[in-house]
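Meet my pick.
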Amino acid sequence: MAQPMQLQPPAAATKPVVAKPRPIPLPPIRPAGLGLPRTAAAEAPAAEPAAAAAPATTAAPSAQTPRPTAPAKARTGVPATQEEAIERLNAYLNSFSSLQGNFIQFAANGRRLEGRVYIQRPGKMRFEYEPPVTTEVIADGTSVAVRDKRLATQDIYSIGQTPLKFLVRERMDLAREGTLTGASIDGDILSVRIEDRSTLGGTSKITLKFDLVANELRQWIVVDPQGYETSVALYNLDTQRRPDPKKFVIDYQRTL
């Protein structure tokens, strides 16, 4: 009897061999001084392990961080106190014997006048107004004349009765000139307020405005005993040239 035919189980399929992935190396730790100038990189500390690194919100100070700037007063030369500022104005007023320049005057009624001012210390001053104004104001050292060129007339006053007599003093000391009622600094401008009780008709109030950076007198404001305010702004000042002495001559024959 024939033996039954035995079937052999099929051979197991051979599994493909898969290569294990090769580990990818991590990039090196970023040096602390990367991106900084060489001098700063040389001083930068070595990098520490990531576990000991500072939190991301804490930034190390950079070698390029700008230094704190000096206070504004130190940069511009503005005095720190009112007393120092007043001394600066005193020093300025005593630094020249002659002055000339342009002025713009605003009267109490709002009228705008322009002209030239001349000062020669001690005691001499002149205001020349541009046309159509025909007025001149002249101080010759003892008197002040308010002259009308068109009418050829003038009024004479003692120089001690005028509120601007301090401008022509040989030596100036604001603390002793009338009554110093106050001072203030607004930006670069010093304002000094004085009361003069010896002016004609009563007490005049005078405010001087001085540019602490340019070191120049910029303006004065006078409130007369009747309460009328006159403001005079100065520009193009020259303290080197001496004015013509003829500008300070008063013709007393024209006196009213």
Q: What stands out?
A: The domain at 82-238 is CATH 2.50.20.10 (outer membrane lipoprotein receptor (LolB), chain A). The radius of gyration is 42 Å. Residues 1-7, 9-13, 36-75 have pLDDT under 50 and may be disordered.
